[in-house]
TrEMBL record:
Keywords from the UniProt entry: Signal
Pfam families noted in UniProt: DUF3280
Domain of life of the organism encoding this protein: Bacteria
KW Signal (keyword) present: yes
Entries under InterPro entries matching the protein: DUF3280
Record-given protein name: DUF2380 domain-containing protein
Signal peptide location: 1-24
Length: 183
């Protein structure tokens, strides 16, 4: 009898909680994080292409996972991501068309550049797909050429993106970024 009562209580709680959860998921901004470009001008003698490719995947996955934790965001994919697309590999019109067709509201992309053995830098950009306008554009730099450094940079970027997007959603009309997006 006690287990039946617990089951009933769980059903009642689910019926109360689920509509809000469903509404929150529907209202969430759909965000796609595509692969980042990478360049290395450090002049180091050993080939680190495989390690850097793995770290870029880790960077993107960490960024995506942290954005997914934001209540007003839901990460998604676009078709070109199956082929590892980067903004430098695809025509801007095609990228916008794929993003719009997938219902993406925000597109996150950028690049990382290794300047020396311990210093990396780059840029993270977020495009409002419907308006084709940048809503976030940050230059970043970080120390280290290991997984931990890339994870820290991704987490900081996700936190900055989330804060900017939340402010954008509350901004008075006319106070948004006006710089045109990708062309």
């Amino acid at each position: 009898m006690e287990s039946i009562n617990r089951f009933r209580a769980a059903v009642v709680m689910a019926s109360i909680v689920m509509p809000g959860s469903i509404a929150a998921a529907i209202d969430a901004e759909r965000v796609a994080v595509i692969n980042f470009d990478y360049s290395d001008s450090s002049g180091e003698p050993e080939d680190q292409t495989a390690e850097h490719a793995a770290r870029l995947v880790l960077f993107r996955e960490t960024l995506e996972a942290d954005l997914e934790k934001v209540a007003s965001m839901a990460t998604t994919t676009i078709p070109c991501m199956a082929n590892g697309c980067r903004v430098s590999m695809i025509r801007a019109d095609d990228l916008l068309q794929e993003s719009r067709a997938a219902g993406v509201g925000l597109l996150v992309f950028g690049g990382v550049h290794k300047m020396s053995t311990l210093v990396e830098g780059g840029r993270v950009m977020v495009l409002d797909v419907a308006e084709n306008r940048f809503v976030f554009d940050r230059v970043m730099s970080f120390r280290g050429d290991d997984d931990e450094a890339f994870v820290r940079a991704a987490r900081l970027s996700a936190r900055d993106i989330a804060g900017t997007v939340l402010r954008r959603n509350r901004a008075p009309e006319g106070r948004l970024e006006t710089r045109k997006g990708i062309r």
